Each structure stands twice: as structure tokens, then as C-alpha cells.
Amino acid sequence: MLKRVLSSRLAVLVLLAAIIAVVPVLAPSSFYLRVAALVWIFALAALGLTILTGYAGQVSLGHAGFLGIGAYAVAVGPAKLGLDPLLSLLLGAVLCGLVAYAVGRPILRLKGYYLAIATLGFGLIVALVLTSESAVTGGPDGMQVPRMVLFGWRVSGVSTWYWITGGALLVGALLALNIQASPSGRALRALHDSEVAAAGVGVDVAKKKLAAFVLSAVFAGVAGSLLALMNGFITPDAAGFMHSIELVAMVIIGGLGSVVGAVVGAAFLVVLPQALTVLQEYEQAVLGLLIMVFMILLPAGIVPSLRRLLLERAA
Amino acid sequence: MPQTAARRALRAAAVIASTAVASVFAVTPGLAADPIRIGSVVSATGPASFLGDPEQKTLKLYVEALNKKGGLMGRPVELVLYDDGGDANKARTFATRLVEDDKVVAMVGGTTTGTTMAMIPVFEDAKIPFVSLAGAIEIVEPVRAFVFKTPHTDKTACQKIFEDMKSRGITKVGMISGTDGFGKSMRAQCMKVVGDYGITVAAEESYGPTDADMTPQLNKIKNTAGLQAVLNPGFGQGPAIVTRNYAQLGITLPLYQSHGVASKSFIELAGPAAEGVRLPAPALLIADKLAENDPQKKVVMEYKKSYESATGQPVSTFGGYGFDGIQILVQAIERAKSTEPRKIRDAIESTKGYVGATGLYTMSPKDHLGLGTESFRMLEIKGGDWVPTETK
After folding, report:
1. How far apart are CA A72 and CA B126, in angstroms?
2. Is the same domain home to B188 and B267?
3. Chain B positions touching chain A (beta carbons under 8 Å)
4. Per-10-residue mean pLDDT, chain B, length 392
5. Which chain B residues are Cβ-neighbours of A232 within 8 angstroms?
6. In chain A, how many domains are there?
7. Are B140 and B181 within one domain?
């Protein structure tokens, strides 16, 4: 029974929806809503990496680059090209997919460390372009993002964005869960375990890897667009190397390949720095220490470890 | 025993998680009387830490000293300080936290233009005064009701340079600028105001931030007839190379550098070629050489002494911005005799003749910076050191 519930797709979605619905009731001020909205946004980006790293076993150290592309799509589109923000968001997602396709085709022939380094280079290039093309992007000082207007309604305010980002996360989670259960998901997990074996049973390894990369880029792009629209301002450091590492850390801390894990990992890295500010200058050191402690004690990630524990108890 | 190990791990995780959650909700231990809460978000770590770190230290020292003297209006001051690591998104979150959760009455911080611009909407919406420590003129132009800043802008530096040129009878100049953020911004500001001084820019060249040789550009300037001086808006290593090439080409026209190179490392990099170069810089740089009757002498020396004795590091102009920011704020609260954010805002706007480490501030509804060109001192490099060209 418990096993069925824990592995049910519906249960995961209901759990996420319940959490999203409950947080505003408990939050004492809109600051907490903002932090929660940031968790949903970064969880969405981390979900993309769950598909790429968790399902397909490929490492990307440049995913903040896609976050940056999505973010600047909604900044540059309306401001310089006069496009509708929502259209810009969609175009940004398409652009991320296309860039991932173009970059992924040669890169995904590489394995292991080489792939990680190639994606790292990609992320650095995006951040560099955003910083130096100041005529378009405003340079290192960043640029304003025009407010989104939907059917004459100006979208602003922390609680509005809370619900939008929460909704986006649910849609992303639904997609990720369905992919996991689909033949493509099984193919991805097969090539995760052994590329040779997967190819042997007829999986088009290169094509599946590329598909996972493109999809994960679109997830990150949409998350970037939401971040830029919510903040109303964006700087190139959104695409920075540290953010790429943070995204990977979220997926690993939460639990590789787990949808709930991506959300828990995002919550870990977004909420914890806010909680640790009481430590002042020791904040960064303690944050690093906590990550180490968690990885040593729960090497499979928070969510899979807890799930195994529950199942062992029930058995 | 994998199960017990896992359980132990779980327990450890639970303890860590609960302390983390508890600390979110924990109220910082209160001081005797109800404290006045002033918020700050600076980039004490990350790529902008060379700006944010002295700011953070200055703010902490200032509030510590203030509380030792009995605080503000008989109440202790509590500085709620967060480090955004130079990340605009984090800065925005901390700004929301200061407003929504910490309930601060005012804010001084925002190390970079990026973090400041990201935080402005939060304070404008909440109608809480925000004194920024970042450079760009966009922060106060157009004027926003609740946003102020203390660092001088590129425009003031341009005006100071052109003032000096005018007094030397120079009317036709060449300009060579960097294409980095600083160089571009300053070039644009200089071009805007150059006409006010009856000066024309007859030759213009540029160089990339990592270029290693500017001889071709300088040669073109050298061959332009009738130039009387050359101006180099730039930041980092570029201006040092320009200065060296300038001397190698044997150009004898006066060379003006910007406040972007007002540090000892510029003199070291440019070597003997730096002799005779003029540049505008804040009084803090020549604190020891200021005349005894200089209005800023006392403030600058006191700040320099207290900072250097407490931190063991040389004072920097960036810390000076923080010093002026908090001091303007504290004086405004004193004048307003209130911690009502709107009244503090009005009082900051009416700041008049405040003598700070950076300069003399007089704000108005149209000017939320309030620094004139006198906040800059025109310096000349002589014998490997700064020498003020004018005595007040």
C-alpha cells in the first residue's frame, strides 16, 4: 500500500499542490511568499536537470546559461523588439531548445568529464555575451524587465507571482513524471545504466540524450523567464557559473532522478542561506558544511533516502 | 546495520533542519530600549567584495560607535545587515526581507548598480528611504521619491576635469576611452557636459578593456592638429597602458585621467610616465595632505583613523560612501525627530551642507545626490605621489 502511494504519480502531484496551497496560509509575511516563489522557480529549473542528469545520467555544468537566455528573452524581447512578454517567454523557451539542439548535437558525443567541461564552457560563453553586449543587454549593470500585461491585467505583486510560479512548477512536475513513466523515460534510464546495453536493445542513444538535453534547457529557460518577470530586473550573474553549480547541487542534494527531490533540493539551497544569515560571515562556510553532512549521511539524496527508510519500516 | 545508520542520519538531518527553521523565526535578541532598525544589503563577498567589504566594515563600526555614545534619540540602533554576494536576485530577496520581516525604517546599501536597481522597486513600493552606495547616475536620474545615493557620478568627474581645463585655457581636446562599462558610461557623461565649458573634443579613440597596446590610437591623436590636452576615461589596467604609451610617443600635452584610477596601484603600473598626469579624486585619498582649515579635514581624518585602527587595512573611497550614507541617514533621523520612514525621507532630502568623507552634500527635491564638483580634488602626480593642484 505504502509502496504504491510512494511511487504513484498522482500522489506526488497532490503532495506538491498541497504544499503550494498551504504555504501562503502559514507565511507570516510576503517575504516568505517570495522565498517560496523562488523555490518553485529554481525547482522548475532543477526538474530539467532531473530529466537530464537523473534520468539520462548526463551532467551539465552550464545550465544557468539557459536560465540566462530565458531571462534575457523576456527582458530584451519587449524592451528592444516590442514583443509581448508572454510571447517573449515562449520564444525564449524555443530559443533555449534550439540552442540546446545546436550545442547538444556535437557536445553529447562526449562522455563523462568531457561533456561536463563542454557544457561548462557553454555556460561561461552565455554569461560573457550577456555581460559584454551592453548595447542589447545593458551590460554588467543589468536591465529592467517590463511588467507582463495579460489581457489588460498588469501582472505584479508577490502573491500573484507565487501562484504563477507554483502553477508552472506543477505543470513541469507533471511533464517530468509522465516522461519518467513513458517509453522514452525507460530508454533514458536504460542508457543511464549502460549506454552499450541500451544501444544493444535498440535505444537510439544519441537521439534520446539530445532530447533530454533540449527538454532540460527549455525547463531552465522558462524558469529564467519567470525569475526575470517576477523581479522586474535582471543582471548577467543569473547566467553565472555559480548558479549552474547550484542547480546541479539542488538535484543531487534532493535526490537524483526524483521529482520531489528536485523541489526539496531547491528549497534546501534557497531557504538555507536565508536561515543562516544569523551566522553572518560564517554563513557560507556553514552552508558548505551542511551540504557535506547531508551528502555523507544521505548519499542517495534527501528524498530517495527518506523513501527507502519509510519502505523498510513498512516492510 | 544499515537501518540504524540511516535512522541516525535521519535524526541528524532533522536536528539540522529544525535549527535552521528555528533560526528563520528566531527574533534577534532585543536591546534595552526599543531599537531603531536600519537595514543594509551589501556585496561583502563575491566579485564586488572590494567595494562591499569596506562598506560593511564601515557600517558596523559606525553603528557600534553610535550605540556606545548612547544611540540615536536615546534608543539603540540595530543594523540588520545582509550579504548578497553581488547577486541581484539575492539582493532583491534580502530587500523584501528587510521591508516585510525586519521592518526597518530605512536602508543604506546596494553596493553595485545592478543590485541597487534590483532593490529599488521594493523600497519605492514600501515607501521606505533607500540610500544607495552604487555609482551609476541612473539611480537618482530621474529622481525617485525614496531613493538617494552618496557616491559621486561620472558626470561630476567630467565636470571637474573640464573646469580644470577651462582654468588652464584649454578649448580643444582629444579623448581616448575604454569600452568597458566604466569607460563607456563616463565617455557618454563627458560628451553631455563638455559643451558647457566651451571645450570641443576634436579627436576620439577607444580601446578594449584587455588591449595591451594603445600606440596606434594615440598616434592618431598625436597627429591631430591643435589639440591642447587629452582625456582618458577608463578603469583598471587600460589607463596605465595609455599613460605609458603616451610617454613613449613623446606627447607633451597635459594628460587627464579619471577617478577610476585613483589608487596607488595606478602610479605603480604607469611608472615614471605618470609624472604630471592630472585626475579628479575624493579628499579621502589625500587625507594627510589636506590643509588644516579644509572643511573636510576633520571628518576625513577621523574616519580614516577609526577605520584603519579597527580593521588594520588602508581606508578606501568605497568605505567612505558607506560612512556618508549612514551618517546622512542618522542625521536625518535626528533632524526629523522621528523614525517614520516618510519623515526620514523628507529629512534626507533636506540635507544641507553635510560635510562627509566623500564631499559636501546638499540635497534637494531635484537632486538626490547633492554632490558638487568641489567633492573632487584635482590631483597631479609628482614624484610618485598625489599632490593637490589647488588649495582651499
Report:
1. 27
2. yes
3. 3, 6-10, 12-13, 16, 20-21, 23-24, 26, 28, 44-45, 81-83, 86-90, 92-93, 96-97, 99-101, 112-115, 117-118, 121, 136, 138, 181, 184
4. 50 52 45 83 87 93 94 93 91 94 94 92 94 90 94 90 94 90 85 94 89 93 94 88 95 92 84 93 87 90 92 87 95 94 95 91 93 88 88 50
5. 121
6. 1
7. no
